[in-house]
Design brief:
Layout (H helix, E strand, L loop, with lengths): L3 E8 L2 E8 L4 H12 L7 E2 L15 H4 L5 E6 L3 H5 L19 H4 L5 H13 L13 E5 L23 H9 L2 E6 L4 H10 L10 E5 L5 E5 L3 E5 L3 H6 L8 E5 L12 E3 L6 H4 L5 H15 L16
Parallel strand pairs: 1-4, 5-6, 5-10, 6-7, 10-11
Antiparallel strand pairs: 1-2, 3-4, 8-9
InterPro entries: FCP1_dom (IPR004274), HAD-like_sf (IPR036412), HAD-SF_hydro_IIID (IPR011943), HAD_sf (IPR023214), Ubiquitin-like_dom (IPR000626), Ubiquitin-like_domsf (IPR029071), UBLCP1 (IPR051658)
GO molecular function, one term: protein serine/threonine phosphatase activity
EC number: 3.1.3.16
């Protein structure tokens, strides 16, 4: 009797459970994914499905992949109707979604004991997997992924089409003065996959120090916005004493992520609708100039109003 293989497909913010037999091939998997999601097999890119370090061909049997029960596969792919509309400019799309301006009375939460205790717990319990060691005399740059470096929702045939323009040039320039950390509000598995997809992991011109995922975040409560998860830079500062508010800058498309450290955060324009904007988006190119300005002219990053960063470029 053939053994069953249960697989989870993660696509467009949803998860789909697929059940096949171990003797079914990757081709059968793609057909099952098509039935569940509507994405045709030739449009599917199964990011973390590997056989001997490479993407398996369609004839490869599932038993050869040795998948664990409930194995999650991150998929990229577009529906035909979305592709047909790819050159249609959406209307009435706000520049920023799910964000807010930090009001003065809310900034005080950064010093509340209950949140400082949560940060201390992350410092003690959260294990960082070092990719590269910190360098003496460097500042610290903390970067978000989704909508900051990568448009993870728009229509595309390959991941590179969703990469923000000038990404590698930006990281290369930043690496001259900054150690670089990637912090995303997702799981570590998906962070690793996205960095590989974008060609960041093993780029010859720069190195990422480490990745942080959602488990390094803490939840805070504000009277106006309720409970939300945020990225406290204190988690990094508590583990690496050479970094502090004086030499750290965080880029994120959502301001609430750095509500614990409002003076060290810079909200950049979100990179959405890559198919329409990748020819004109120069945000990272301009931010490279700002990072160079900070490194050369500022001894305390928290003393600068980063909302006016464009005036320094």
């Amino acid at each position: 009797m053939e053994s069953l293989v249960k697989i989870i497909i993660k696509w467009s913010g949803k998860e789909y459970e697929i059940e096949l037999t171990e003797n079914d091939a990757v081709r059968d998997l793609k057909e099952a994914v098509h039935k569940s999601t509507g994405v045709r097999p030739e449009r599917q890119k199964l990011l973390n499905l590997k056989f001997k370090g490479k993407n398996p061909d369609d004839d490869c049997k599932l038993c050869q992949l040795k998948l664990k029960p409930g194995f999650k596969i991150m998929m990229m792919g577009s529906l035909e109707e979305d592709i047909a509309e790819v050159n249609t400019t959406p209307v009435d799309i706000p520049e920023v979604l799910n964000d807010f301006d930090i009001e003065e009375e809310e900034v005080a939460i950064e010093n509340r004991e209950v949140y400082l205790a949560k940060i201390d717990k992350r410092i003690k319990d959260y294990e960082i997997k070092m990719l590269n060691q910190p360098r003496d005399g460097k500042n610290l740059l903390v970067l978000d992924i989704d909508y900051t470096l990568f448009d993870h929702r728009s229509v595309a045939e390959t991941g590179l089409e969703l990469m923000r323009p000038y990404l590698h040039e930006f990281l290369t320039a930043a690496y001259e003065d900054y150690d670089i950390v990637i912090w995303s509000a997702t799981g570590m598995k998906w962070i690793d996959e996205k960095m590989k997809l974008l060609g960041v992991t093993n780029h010859p011109n720069y190195k990422i120090m480490f990745h942080l995922d959602s488990l390094a975040m803490i939840s805070v409560h504000t009277p106006k916005y309720g409970v939300m998860d945020v990225k406290p830079l204190g988690v990094i500062w508590g583990k690496f004493k050479q970094y502090s508010s004086k030499n750290t800058i965080m880029f994120d498309d959502i301001r609430r992520n750095f509500i614990m450290n409002p003076k060290n955060g810079l909200r950049i324009r979100p990179f959405r609708q890559a198919h329409l904007n990748r020819a004109t988006d120069k945000e990272l190119l301009n931010l490279s100039k700002y990072l160079k300005y900070l490194a050369k002219n500022c001894s305390d990053f928290a003393s600068i109003n980063h909302r006016h960063w464009e005036s320094k470029c």
